[in-house]
Amino acid sequence: MRRIAVIEKDKCNPQGCGGYLCLRVSPGNRMGKEVFVIGPDGKAQVNEEVCTDAESITVKKCPFNAIHMVKLPEKLTDKPIHRFGTDGFELFSLPAPLFGQVNGILGINGIGKSSAIKVIAQMLQPNFGKATEKKSAAESINALIQMFRGSEAQAFFERIRDGKLKVSVKPQAVDSIPATFKGTAKKLLQAVCKDEKKTSAITAELGITNVLDTDISKVSGGELQRIAIAAAALKDNASPDVYIFDEPTSFLDIKQRISTAKFIRALVKPENSVVAAEHDLIILDYLADTVHIMYGESGAYGIVSKPKPTRNAINAYLEGFLRDENMRFRQHEIKFESKPPEKLGGRESLVKWDGIRTKLGKFTLLAPAGELPKKHVTGVLGENGLGKTTFVKLLTGEIKPDSGNVNANVTISYKPQYINAAIQNPEDQVTNFLDKAQNDTQLMARLEIEPLLLKKFKELSGGELQRVMIAKCLAEDADLYLLDEPSAYLDVEQRIAASKAIRERMSLQGKTAVVVDHDLLLIDYVSDTLMVFSGEPAVNGEAHGPFQMETGMNHFLKSLNITLRRDKDSNRPRINTPDSRLDREQKAEGKYYYS
Ligand code: SF4
Q1: For residue 478, which of 155, 189, 362, 411 is within the disulfide window of CB 3.0 to 4.6 Å?
Q2: Residue 388: left (phi > 0), alpha (psi -120 to 50), or beta?
Q3: C-beta neighbour count of 429 within 10 angstroms
């Protein structure tokens, strides 16, 4: 069984650990071997050849969890596709973009999804595990053909070699586009497609016509995401053979997620292929025909499973076990319980509001009288621009209504939507910020905060910062916890962990929470009751509820014209295929949501 030793360079912080702690505590180094050394980049470097089991102590000592020493699964017979440096992340196998379908990719952050995508798109020349050897593009592609001989991927790489495939990629980090492109959205799209008719049809379909003349640096995250999707669809005058969408629904609201998923599905033709990596399980389920699961250890190594039909793949992912490959990749199963319907009668309320009306610029929010039930988690669903965050700010007292009152004589702990703005000093260390949370070992473990404590805020990724802010919010002693978009930047497992952390805190301490999010699965998992926002984005919004889950979901799903069922094996929510028997039956009965 092969063992690999890896240092995650972006986590390695030699100053933060008191000066190359691993070099000082390594049993091998103490015996005069050079197991850990200082690399040319100033970060620690590990020498895999002389690394023994005794170094497990060094792994544990690193306060930033930057060192991995892992045994690769015994059953892994594949050779590596790529290694990032001699002590870096190793990728095994690749997704095979089958033609005439959407090929999904599912896996946690740091497992190599974007690297696998880059190899398929020929943006990364694989080194086949030999980090010091450089292969030419022709050598790499021939080696890939050899490696995948006899599989569907062979034909794919042969067509790449012969220059017969045009690949278009929507990158993951759309928020970095303004740093590399200057100008309007229209200018960006004109650079990839000269056909104005096609461009206007696609931009209309994606709902971005009104931002075409806006400078890229001024558009919102959701608009930027759809501009990037339009650019990928329009590349090569709208005729790519392989479309790759890396996390296409980040920053989108639920309505936009569904319409974007429909848009991506509609790109598929028998002669082309679509690849999509996605963390929103309900959307991935709706979007993909088959799914490759990526598993391994985040930051250390990633293995791509064979493709499986989407339903089986997602259920196997939740179970943590690939039956046909006889591979357990997670010890625990992720379970969804069907909750009994909430009884609303006779419950106590924590916060009440009478008919509220408030105007912010050109936008008006109305909230007919309502109340938040005590000891409940109330989920909030609705499109962007309908006033969900404004409503949260009315509850916190940050915004005063023009008419009506909010009776919220309670202490509030609030996690805002825009978490970067909540950081006062990027130089501050996380440990000073999370004083209370550190006493709660369950919360710390659930959100994997320990390795982040010695980091400065400026060193945190989006997902790490989100977890810190959720921990901070939940650790405060308050009557009401308000969490605005806790799923942003989190991968599928972190979303479920965050949902569990919220529920545990509320049920163990009998507290009340309001959770605003666009991930239907998270809202379904976390909520006892539901508020739904309707209206015209950026013009007017109306808050409805809180309702029982079934009533609220029926209301919301009807507005989206979709129906949900629970998967019979995993209990997870699934969108019914439009116009399928179940979809028609549920709509006819007015049961858009399973009861
Ligand atoms: Fe310090 Fe860990 Fe980096 Fe070693 S790997 S220098 S212990 S942060």
Answers
A1: 411
A2: alpha
A3: 16
Nearest CA to ligand 1 atom 3: 12
Examine the pLDDT at 409 and tell me if it is beyond 90.
Answer: no
Tokens of 535: 């209206």
Atom in ligand 1 nearest the alpha carbon of residue 7: 5
CA-to-CA distance for 465 and 262, rounded, in angstroms?
31
| H/E element, 192 | helix 185-192
- Ligand 1 neighbours, Cβ below 6 Å, are 7, 12-14, 17, 20-22, 44, 62, 64, 66-67
Whether pLDDT at 281 is above 90: yes
Calpha distance 164→556 (Å, rounded): 45
Average pLDDT for residues 160-169, to the nearest whole number?
Answer: 91
| Segments forming the whole domain that contains residue 42 | 3-71
Q: Residue 586 in 3-state DSSP?
A: helix
Of 26, 52, 71, the position where a domain reaches its end is 71
What the block records as the tokens of 19 is 């000066």
Q: Which amino acid is at 314?
A: I
Please state the pTM of the whole predicted model: 0.88
Residue nearest (by alpha carbon) to ligand 1 atom 4? 22
| In a shared domain, residues 480 and 573 | no
Q: Tell me, yes or no, whether 509 and 571 share the same domain.
A: no
